[in-house]
Each structure stands twice: as C-alpha cells, then as structure tokens.
Amino acid sequence: MTRHAPPLPAALSCLPDKRAAFAADTYYQESAEQLAALTADVTGFATTHGVLLLKPDAVVTRSLLPALDWVRETGFRVVAAAPVRLTRTTVRALWYFQWNLATEYRRRLADLFAASTDSLVVVVRPERATEVPVPVLLTELKGPTDPAAREPGQLRHLLGDHGYLLNLAHTADEPADVLRELGVYFGQSERERVFTAALAGDDEQDRARKLAHELYAQAPRHDLGYGAAVERLRRAAPGYGSVRELIEEAWRTGAALDPWDTVVAGASVFPMRRKGFEPLLGGVTVAQWRRCAAEGQ
C-alpha cells in the first residue's frame, strides 16, 4: 500500500484512520510545521489545549459572553482568541471528514448562515492537569449535537435548544484536530499570533470578551425560535401550504427570504443527515480515549 506520509503518533488520535489521513492533510501539515518552529513539543501543545468555535448563531443569540463565562467556570483559561469568517470553503474543510453524511439541504442551509457574520475562535487550557487530552475532555463537556441528549452543565445545554443544525458551538475532537482546525481557520500570520499567545499562556479572557462585543455590534440579535421564524416567512411569502414548499419555491425563483428564518425553519422540515452511512472519521469520547490508551493503540 502506498504511504502518503508517516502516520501521526497515537498521542494525537486514537483512531488509526485519522492518524493516516491527517498526516497527509495540508491543513494539518501547515499548522503542525508552523507550531514546530515555535515549540519543540507539538504533541504536548495539542494535548493540553482545546479549540472552541462559537459560530454565527452564537453571535445573533448573544451567547458569546455566556459561553466565555462557562469556559472560566468549568476550569479553563482562554489563552488565545481571534475572529474568523466561515466561508463556504472553510465550512467544507472543517467538517470534510463528516460531511459525507450531510444532505444537500444541510449544506445549503449552512452556507446561508455561516458567513453572515464573523465567528469567535478561542484556544483554552485547563487550570489543572487532566486525565485525558484537553480537546477530548472539552468536546465531552460541550455536549452532543442532538439537543435531547444534552445534560445540565454542558455548554450546549446552557446555550439552549435551537435545533440540530444551529448548535452554536463546535470543538476540536482530539489533539490532532486542534492542529488541523487552527490550520483551517487561520492563515500563516494570524495563526502565528494565536500560537504565540497560547504558548505564552496569559489569560486572554478580556480580549475574548472585547471581541465578543465587537461581533455583537456586527450582527443584530435574532430570535431563532421555530414558531416565530415560520410566522415571519409566511408573512414574507403568503399562500403556500407548507413551509417546505415556501422555501423550495423561494430557492427556485431566487426570492429573498430572511436567511436566519430560512435556516431555522429549513432545518426542521428538510432532512439533515443521509441515513445508512457512517462519517469518514468519527468522534472520540472520553471513555473511548481511555480504552485506547489502556490498549496502547
């Protein structure tokens, strides 16, 4: 079998397929190479830092500051913060290994809101040492995509149920994802600033909060409740029997609808996931990581 690059060490991921795929991935390579010029311990950095993305839906629901409060109250320190615009290309690069499951509707709806305003990326590290890599722990504490499966104390539970698609927050799953995702979000110069700040370890909570207020100023608050969204859509385009028909006709004719209302309603009436398939690369729970570590994988 042709080898495209030396596989990553097991400390960066407990998934062999991910270790092989990321080793040959340009986003990962650029990020890891740049970090290696700043520190001799690339694996240590990726293991002890988490990356949290607060998306445009977190901006318009005014959830950035509550999320930053949760970070601090959960025992993490913000060590770097920067805005990022989620373009169509960024979105596909970020979720490339999972979006084989996305339907055409999910892709189209995601494009509607992703670039509506900047998002906020924060790099965090715990105030105390953790048993498992920080990104694995942070992802579990964030909570799952399915609102029904979230538990009190998890970030997504705190920020509220806005449906399957609008889940407000994303985290890098494993240490390898920390490096790759920073490679997706930022170009060379901004990524160096983020790495340098994170390596210094200073508390950047105040900077993150300042950026949050700037993002609030970019985008007006928006109610993401389903009932209110449907009511506004029907007022804008009366005469349709179903919300699905209304949105499909608007797409066909190019009629203008409020993008947030379209996303809220569309995520409820269109299928979001292709059934019967698995993602190219799955997530890793704390329990799975511990099991992999115990088995020496």
UniProtKB/TrEMBL annotation:
Stored PROSITE patterns: NDPK_LIKE
SMART domains on file: NDK
Domain Nucleoside diphosphate kinase-like, residue spans: 47-193
Entry-linked InterPro entries: NDK-like_dom, NDK-like_dom_sf
Family according to the record: Belongs to the NDK family.
Name of the molecule in the record: Nucleoside diphosphate kinase-like domain-containing protein
